[in-house]
Amino acid sequence: MDTALTQCVMSFNRPDDKTLLVSIAGDFRTGNELPSSGEVENQIRSEPGIRELTFETEGLTGWDSRLLTFLIKINELCTQNNIHINREGLPQGVQRLLALASAVPENKEARREAVQSSVVSKTGETTIGFWHSFIETVDFVGDAFLSFMRLLRGKARYRPSELFVIIQDCGAKAFPIVSLISLLVGLILAFIGAIQLKMFGAQIYIADLVGIGMVRVMGAIMTGIIMAGRTGAAFAAQLGTMQVNEEIDALKTMGISPMEFLVVPRMLALTLMMPLLCLYADLMGILGGMLVGVGMMDLTVMEYFMETKKAVTLVHVWIGLFHSVVFGVLVSLAGCLRGMQCGRSASSVGEAGTSAVVTGIVSIIVATAVITFICQVLGI
Amino acid sequence: MNEAKPHIKVEDLTMAYGDFVVQRDISFTVNRGDIFIIMGGSGCGKSTLLRHLIGLQSPAAGCVLYEGRSFWDAQKDEKESIKRSFGVLFQSGALWSSMTLAENVMLPLQEYTDLPLKQIKEIVSLKLSLVGLAGFEEYYPSELSGGMKKRAGLARAMALDPEILFFDEPSSGLDPISSKLMDDLIRELRDSLGATVVIVTHELASILSVGDNSVYLDTESRTMIASGDPKRLLADSKDPKVHRFLTRGADDIKDGEVL
Q1: Which residues on B lie below 8 Å from A252 (Cβ)?
Q2: Average pLDDT estimate for A110-114
Q3: What are the pLDDT digits (tens) for B196-212?
Q4: Coil, strand, or helix at residue A267?
Q5: Which of A17, B7, B112, B128 could form a disulfide with B32 if both were Cys (CB 3.0 to 4.6 A apart)?
Q6: pTM
Q7: For chain A, which residues make up each domain, given as ranges?
Q8: CB of A55 closer than 8 Å to CB of A87
Q9: How far apart are CA A125 and CA A213, in angstroms?
């Protein structure tokens, strides 16, 4: 193949009064500078008597789609000016491809125009979209609740073996990451507190800060966020893929409720595992705080332990556990909701995963604010 | 074989996604024991019609009757009982990927029968051997080829000995020999089980070799434009679109006359 860039040349001749002969020579391929179809237009404009356009291509050394698009432009120009176009002078392959390209006329109905909608209509559409999404979410939550009730009454259809696999996946397998994150969060809390408390010689209160902070809320929040990113996204991806593969349709046609069969076991598993993971995260966080307290603030392990024991009451523990149960429900609901809403393409599975994480984390933060407010009002 | 007893009746069915009408005013009858083909070009709404027949999508207008019982007007329990009378083979097989083949076939049996596990396992082995997959009980769907997945999906569809079997593009993605084997299997199952079979396909060879009756959905006019025995349609149809479809685009018809 000739790869050297050669100049593309176009010239015009008038064999008779009514005909314009367009000679093209050179390499009409991508990468070379092509002549403009405007030159042909100028010729047609300046010679109104032209009724036919013919081609001469003996000097043409190579061509690709660029030549075709160039010729299609000339073709359109001729159609607009009622000039007959004679393709006989073109290479055979070009003639056939042009015939193929014009074999099926453009479907005018299919073409989509870029619709410029006003700000008001965009706002309206977005609001309606939000409303529909809200209704869908309420519908899903209601359905999930009813299915959960059926489970409690022992009437839900699900596979216990699958429930254990999910429990293992969102419980035991989450241990390493929960350990690492909670230890570091405890460590960070202790560092931040240490700088301030050291000024007053009150290093011992690091134990109070870390203990209450982790047990009351931080342990649950960090576990919730980890599980939203890890398990919530996994739930959405699993259910989304099942949606794409028609597996959920197969369940429905067999009269098996996907809600009972797929959603409820996931909700149950995560809601059961979250408090356990939360307790573990609390311990790891306290350990992290202790590392700073003992390692840098000259406290003894016993001192730190006793101070933590004094500061952390059972009420704090219960509040932390309550947070974690709520987060378990929210994260599993968000993951399953996004999975069940997933479209039927591969890209929508990715979107479902992303959306599950975002929904999960936002709902965790909102729920924390609500619970904190309620605790404040109740004085606990 | 054909006693011409109506099994499924579709009356003035209109299918739509929101405001977009996919097909309108579809009416046809599927007789008991027939192999009925729903055919038409790509994107004409064949699979959407199937989704309406198997209860996955509700119609914009019209109804689907199973032995005179209107599916979409039925109460939940009746709907469930109608659903239990049919098995569906989805285009991709739609096997539950977290379960082995045996568990896939077993699930409907566990859900709807009180049989002891030993007997259920025997039935599972029988169904898998009917589709040529004996010995693959403990395989996961991801370990199988496309053709094997479809056959496993068929074994699951047959788990409860359904009266009606629905197939969505059973031979798509299969090589010609596997495709022919699938056709033979469908005919064999209909003959031996006496089930009514509804197939959505545009595979010409399958249509002409197994179809007893058919309906042709047109993309442009968005309605059915022909119905009847596909072999007879091939010989007699004066409709250029149907003729072109059944002859793979042969252009020997003009103005309703076969040349």
Answers
A1: 55-56
A2: 68
A3: 999 999 888 889 999 99
A4: helix
A5: B7
A6: 0.80
A7: 8-104, 144-378
A8: yes
A9: 43
DSSP assignment letter at B60 = S
Q: Tokens standing for A70?
A: 């160039």
User: At residue A291, does pLDDT exceed 60?
Assistant: yes
Residue B6's pLDDT band (boundaries 50, 70, 90)? confident
Average pLDDT, integer, range B152-162 = 92
Residues B159 and B109: beta-carbon distance below 8 Å = yes
Indicate if the pLDDT at residue A7 is higher than 50.
yes
Would you call B71 an interface residue with chain A, using a CB distance cutoff of 8 Å? no
Distance (Å) from the C-alpha of residue A256 to the closest C-alpha of chain B? Answer: 8
Distance (Å, whole) CA B161 – CA B213: 23
Q: Which pLDDT belongs to residue B153?
A: 94
- Determine whether the interchain pair A250/B55 forms a contact, defined as Cβ–Cβ distance below 8 Å: no
Hey, is the C-beta of B97 within 8 angstroms of any chain A C-beta? yes
Q: Which of B154, B197, B214, B230 is nearest to B32 (CA)?
A: B197
Place of tokens 């989304």: A240
Q: Which alpha helices (H) appear in chain B, and where do they start and end?
A: 46-53, 76-83, 101-112, 117-130, 146-157, 176-193, 204-210, 230-236, 240-246
Residue entry with tokens 């408090």: A275
Long-range contacts of B234-238 (CB under 8 A, 24+ apart): B234/B208
Distance CA B8, CA B28 (A): 8
Whether B84 has its CB under 8 Å from any CB of chain A: the answer is: yes
Residue A258: its chain B contacts at CB < 8 A? none
C-alpha pair distances (Å), A247 with each of A344, B89, B165:
12, 11, 17
The residues in A 151-180 lying below 8 A from B, measured between CB atoms, are 157, 159, 162, 165
**Minimal-distance CA residue of chain B relative to A159:** B107
Q: Which residues, in sequence order, are bridge partners of residue B164?
A: B86, B196
CB within 8 Å: A253 and B98: no
Query: Are the C-beta atoms of residues B59 and B115 closer than 8 Å to each other?
Result: no
Q: Taking CA atoms, what residue in A is nearest to B91?
A: A246
Record: contact B83-A254, CB cut-off 8 A? yes
Q: State the architecture of A8-104 in CATH terms.
A: 2-Layer Sandwich (3.30)
Average of pLDDT values for A74-94? 89
Q: Given this model, what pLDDT does residue B3 score? A: 52
**pLDDT, tens only, A326-364:** 999 999 999 999 999 998 888 999 999 999 999 999 999
Determine the distance in angstroms separating the CA of A161 from the nearest CA of chain B, rounded to an integer.
Answer: 11
What is the tens place of the pLDDT at every residue in B215-228? Answer: 999 988 889 999 99
Q: Check: CB of residue A288 under 8 Å from CB of residue A182.
A: yes
Q: Residue A325 has which token pair? A: 């149960």
Distance between the two ends of chain B, CA-based, in angstroms? 35
Interatomic CA distance for residues B52 and B12, integer angstroms = 13
Which of B83, B90, B98 has the CB atom closest to A246's CB atom? B90
Tell me the C-alpha distance between A329 and A364, whole Å. Answer: 10
- The ipTM value here is 0.86
Is residue A364 within 8 A of residue A224, CB to CB? The reply is yes
Interchain pair A253, B111: CB under 8 A: no
- The verdict on a CB contact (< 8 Å) between A256 and B111 is yes
Q: Which residue of A has its CA nearest to B149?
A: A245
Q: DSSP state, B250?
A: -
- The reply to whether B94 touches chain A by the CB within 8 Å rule is yes
Nearest CB among A245, A253, A256 relative to B56 is that of A253
Across the range B6-23, mean pLDDT stands at 91
